[in-house]
Amino acid sequence: MQKEANMSQFKTKVFIDGSEGTTGLRIRERLSERTDIDLLKISDESKRKDKDTRKEYINKADIVFLCLPDDAARESVSLCENDHTVIIDASTAHRTLSDWAYGFAELSSDFRKKIASSKRIAVPGCHASGFAAIVYPLVKNGVISPETNVSCFSLTGYSGGGKKMINSYENEKTESLYSPGIYALEQTHKHLKEMKAICGLEKEPIFSPIVDDYYSGMLVTVPLFASDMKKALGKNELHEMYASHYANESIVKVRPADEGIKLVYANEKTSYDNMIITVTGNDDRMCIHATFDNLGKGASGAAIQCMNIALGLDEGTGLNL
Fold this sequence. Notes:
By secondary structure, this protein is of the alpha/beta class. 33% of the residues lie in helices and 20% in strands.
């Protein structure tokens, strides 16, 4: 018994605020299998949303994951009164704030260093993760200019809509839910702000998110005309640019150019926490695709990767790669 107590002193104390949603449940599932983590749980269900109880748990944790609506996430941040707790927020609330690290380490060494040193880390949005993985290297490497008009469409499984949408698809299914549906038709999707800011674009992209009749998996696609490029690249050269940008990454990979695929499936990475970039098309008209799980690299997997970086661990620890 004494040995177990001593061992627990060396474990990282983790509290998940909002552990009943899809992202929180997946984080808890991943962390419950780890021997280096001490998951702090509010035993009394009636106090799970109690402010004082949450404040107590937030301040005694080493790592706090926020899986909450934006306003609730902001409140939880305000409850932290120490300078050692690392808060990793999966909401939209803090993603474009300069004093928060944006949790996509593969974009550049600066992003990774900020995650490693920050006490406040914002997990990217699911659609925004694929968009940034594609567009940030284009701007960073001078292939397109910041003022370029960019468009994007993104196909996601229905789990991205949370409990209400999951229930609609699985228990109250109407005929229309058997086909894909485009939403956010007013071009006001909540991820647009970070898509523009993180990629250094001057304008928000035209964005068409699509939900379809499968549980999870995401396929984000950005089309690109050669005539829109600042630095003219053919399809093979574009592939080489991405391969170079992500050359040393273990979680974001570029599909080999000679793989000869005929279809890119949105559920290819379901249940995994990594991402694959694919370049298709010809030298005149190209498409770049990011395939990943909206609940993995698009949410909980990215959150755990950020925690691993903050703790100085291998980034893939506890992830399904």
